[in-house]
Amino acid sequence: MELIHSARMRRVGIGLAVAAALCAGAFAGCGGGGDDNGLDTPAGRAAQAYVDAYNGKHFTKLCELLSRSYKDERSIGPGGTDEEGEARSKCPAYFREHTSGAETKLTLEEVRVNGGVAEAAVTSESEDAPGQGSQIVGLQKQPDGSWLVNDVTTG
What we know:
Blueprint: H1 2-29, H2 42-55, H3 59-64, H4 68-73, E1 78-81, E2 87-89, H5 91-98, E3 104-114, E4 117-126, E5 129-141, E6 147-154
């Protein structure tokens, strides 16, 4: 009888250990339970890619990180075709024009994920504007699991 009770207790203990490990993994994958400020989440990596593309003036990559609705709201979506008949986007030209002044550097500070939406806190520093500005970059999870920027609010 003692042997059966001991084996049953061992199974319960193993079950609790597995459940605890699964819960810890779920929290880490959702941005909770760590001290990374949400940066090491899929939404955080998408926000960092946005910041890196902006800082590096990789405007084609930057535009790939924007949702269709964001581009449509700003009329920076497809812009016809070029001489070879290839689709041309207004988006890279838009960012090239809007970043042609003083050099501005973005820094990702924190990402908060809530289900299929996220907000990224971004600071900005410019050569001609002392101090730091701030932006809230809204991201939305897409049906394919990727995250795209769907809003940028300057504060």
